[in-house]
Amino acid sequence: MQTDGWSNRAVALGCVVVLGLGLFTAPRAAQAQMGTGDARSLEIAEQLIDALGGRANYDGTGMSDDHFWAYVNRETHLMDKFRFQLAVAAEGEFWWRNWERHGPLLLSTPRESAGGATIRMEEIVVTNEMPDDVFTTP
Question: pTM higher than 0.70 for the full model?
Answer without folding.
Answer: no
